[in-house]
Amino acid sequence: MSFKFYPLKALLLGLVLLGIKANTQAQLVFTKEVKNTTTGGDGTLANMGDELLYTITVKNNGTQNYIAAKMYDNVPPGVIYKTGSTVLNTTTLTDKPGGIMPYAGDGNAVNAENYMAGVLPPGQKATVMFRVTVTGNGGSIFNNATIDATQGNVSTIQATNTVYTNIQKDAGCNIIYQTTPAVVSFGRNTPDDQKAYSWVRTVDTITGKGSAVLYDGPNGATKSATTGNNVSGPLLDGCAAIAYDKASQRIYFVNNVAGANLSYIDMSTSPPLSAYRWSGTPLSTNGVSVNRMGMGSDGYCYALTSDASDLIRFKMNSSGTPVINHLGPLTNANTNGGHNVRDARNGETGGDIFADGSGKLYLITNNSSMYKINPATLVATYMGTMKVNGQVVDDNNPFTSQSLAIDLYGNVFINGAYNEVFKLDLQTMNAVSVNSGSSGVYMSGDYTTCAFPVLNSSIIAKKTYTDIDGDGHINGGDTVEYKITVTNIGNINAAGVYMYDYIPPSTTYIKNTTKMNGIAVPDASGGVMPFAKTGTPNGKMVNTLGEDPGIVLPTQDNSAVVTFRVRTEPNKQVCNQSKITLTDADGNIMFVNSSDPTNTGQTPTCFYSDGVLPLINLKFKGALQEQKSVLNWTMNGDDGVATYDVEYSENGTVFTKAGTVAAKENSNIANSYQFTDAEHTFSTTRWYRLRVNQKGGSVNYSGVIMLNTNKLDVEAMPNPFDRDVNVQILVKSAEQVRIRLIDFSGREVYTTSEQLAIGSNSISIRIPAGLSKGMYMLDIRSGKEVLFQKKLLKK
């Protein structure tokens, strides 16, 4: 298993300021182009079998060397790599084991000609070329390359432009052939042989109707495939497995009985057509019938036993004799969860297979589960379950996928033991009927085409954040909600999609705040954010709402959206990225990293947390009781706080620690604390503040309160003020007061209510961030009685 850089996004290796990164990216000119060497064209168009030449150029336009330059470029879906064709500058590179292109997977070094690996000097360039053969015959081939290079201590990740090749479609490969009974509907006296799937017709994909008979199984010509002599008896007799090979213009088939010999219908001649059979060429040799068959884009025909115990591959040799290989039983991908491709008890039997333009097969079973099959590894990856008319297939909405064929546009047509044809949209996984009535619509044993469209799942991710208190300014102690949107921009489901998101430094995760698609996700053991869990693999699967874990359907509307909340520390730059991984059909782990949509380039999501705690998080006040200073404070959600140090000063400038109180570490509630200073009882004027010690090591301070034993009725200071105002109030009985700050247009810009003890009280007020400079009125009332009013100047 290897790791791939996903071509659309890249990992940022080191957190750098955006300005620096944008500057370094501008110094690298990184481009990609494609040419069609078969036609001599520019590569925007191609036919199946054409050769494409990709050229990637990276040039250093700066004044300093780039070192450790590494390029990643995966061979795109819809083509096959031409082994030994990769050239760096003028040197042919050795392929990776198994004939893998040198820059696929975990990438490879690039360098300017005559320089060491990874070195790009100023003004120099590196050029990489490789060739592929187009194996799809419908859809679009697209890809780009990514480079990771270092200049000084700054790592730059940059992608090329994306190049596209549209495959010119062969209209003949949109024709669907089917095996049907003799008639559309059966009467009570219809003979059994008239009900068998023994007639070949085409299907009208607009109306669902069947054509006239192309081959009559009971009555058509039957011959030996070896000698060409006539043989007795029908050859096409109850067939549920057919595959059309355009190259030979044959429809290969086997009848739906164990040990049936391989046969074909010659479609290259004018009607009446003939069927041919080899002797001693059973596709199934384990006593299980073959009822699933289809051509692959690699030129082989594939057949699958009804229980998936044997995937069979065959091809004609130079003498026209079939060479049959029994590849073995299918195995389940690690990401399949409770879905088992060989679970006959739960309906994972029957159905049919079709192929894409990248050499992969797709199986939809009788119970509507879809699996992607890699013939090289026999691994079947669960891709989701189709719906019918928007409804889940179950006992209330039964459906059997017996016959399948795909067209050049990626539409899958489905039929079975019913007079109805359905079209499955792979982007929504929903099948709808194409016919308005049953007239002329046949039941079928199997469908087949020669279409191999490009099917591809491509993942991107973006990450944003929101300051929950909504003031637009993130302060230390604020709650920030991250939102990660994982989107499949391909044309088929992505399967086994994991997301890993570490909790960024200088923040603390708020337990039980994680949601996916608006639904709460339980924390991992120990209160760990579920997507921050480490292991093999890291993180947790994400999915489109309503889909199985790991399944992300195409389009923005089907994105998987994860949110979680953290508490910030003051005076910190906070940056992080989410990492999305999925395993492709070849066993390579591909990954993308989230990007900040507000920034240019491939950057992490960052913000700066200011060094002050907003008043909503901390309230601090004090009172004199029997010459002792009694200090009270509340903190809304202090799970990120370790301890509070109460600090004392005689002059309001130099502070020393008077005591320490451990934090209660309760999130989402107001935690109340009290500390009595019995030591400093002789000073007339006493100043106090709180030192808030965060778990991550950061420190923050509250505003300062002053207690005065001279029994001042009411006082407010300093004046002018910046962020904090200390209010001293002497009351003769315990009472509640309301404190307001009003601008000179009469608008209330701040208000709080405080419960005061008998005697002298001191309250620290933190004014909200963003308050404009100017004159304000401080208004303090007990009920309707005005206790104090004073003009204060905001600096």
Automatic annotation (TrEMBL):
Keyword Signal among UniProt keywords: yes
UniProt keyword annotations, A-Z: Signal
Annotated signal peptide: 1-26
Domain Secretion system C-terminal sorting: 718-791
Record domain DUF11: where: 44-151, 473-588
PANTHER family: CELL SURFACE PROTEIN, LARGE CYSTEINE-RICH PERIPLASMIC PROTEIN OMCB
Listed name of the protein: Secretion system C-terminal sorting domain-containing protein
Native species: Niastella yeongjuensis
Lineage of producing organism: Bacteria, Pseudomonadati, Bacteroidota, Chitinophagia, Chitinophagales
